[in-house]
Model the fold of this input.
Amino acid sequence: MSILIKNILHNNQRTDIFIENNSFSLIGNNLDVKADKIIDGSGKAIVPAFYNTHNHAAMSILRGYSDDKPLFEWLQKDIWPVEAKFTAEDIYIASRLAILEMIKSGTVFFADMYFFCEQTMRAVAEMGIRGAVSKLAMDMFDRSRTQTQKKATAEFIKFSNPCPERIIKCLSCHAVYTVSDELFTYIRDIADQNNMYIQIHVSETEEENKDCLKKYGMSPIAKLDSLGLLSPKTILAHAVHLSDKDINIIKKRGAVISTNPTSNIKLNSGLFMFEKLYSLMPEQITLGTDGASSNNNLNMVESMKMCSFAAKIQGCSAIAGKASDIFKIATVNGAHAFGLNAGKIEEGCLADCLLLDLNNPFLTPNHNLISNLVYAADSSCISDVICDGRLVMENHIVPNEENIISEAQALAQKIKKIK
Ligand SMILES: [Zn+2]
Done:
């Protein structure tokens, strides 16, 4: 498969871009090459696509199911009881809904943490985007659950990846308040043996930090470090409440942070110290949405604006959370965090990109495209999405959209009855 995009705006200049197999092959003027598909890029701009580093995709089916409650009450009373009744097929239907929403808002990769994750992989493989999909481990300090979770993890390791070119199999541990030392160290060893990424929620709320200090005499970051869980292959979701000591540990270990500003603001968890952390470890900061039941969407365009505004309020400064920095964490940083040679429109990079409609009112006038994208745009500005050299959305249309929506609506009716 090859695609030739003619006369597209790239870094403020018109050019042609040739995509061959799954990467950007040639970028230059008046390219004279044969392609399977030619796209007229006049009136459009090309930018990198988004890499969402923290998600629970299937929770999209719980969008609006329970809102306006504190994190622990929300999880324990509303979310966990309904999740316990989900079937594997429900997770497949819900994951397809999430991926549809992500494609429509320009995301080509998401890091996921959930159960029945084989079904999320199935949806990723079918719909053409990328995923770092993990088996969620959580035992609530119950010895019998620890054994069940260890067995489930061992089975997951044996499960054959349905699409190795676009899916990274990962592990995850929910958090220090839901996972025993025995399960944490088991997951760490399995990850080490198989060279896998581990995703963990950490220091999302002040309450989590206080409880951890009381129980273990140290912060959640220090606790994870004491268990040998922090490395460049660890993705720390949230990391809102960090001491200087915690920050030094993260920097030293090279662990990646996924900030989730929209979820943190909605649940009043606190504001991420963007400017301080970005200045100390600019390559280690990435952007995520969290699940749609705590956001309530998976829209990285919106999350970029939220991230910038949260940074300005937290840093008490209008120059905190600059559009160019926010765009970087939403694109290339997320790709690099998972070892992907992507997130840039450059020859040799994986061909993941968005085509933007420059006639959209949100992008007019075009004094500064990245500023427009972070501060003014919504997902209607994105007309086409290319992932791994293939169009996954063309002229705003994603294949099977109606079918995905109607199946999700039927599943939502079933969930209502469970309640
Ligand atoms: Zn989360």
In short: The pocket of zinc ion is lined by residues 54, 56, 201, 237, 290-291 (CB under 6 Å). The mean pLDDT is 96. The radius of gyration is 21 Å.
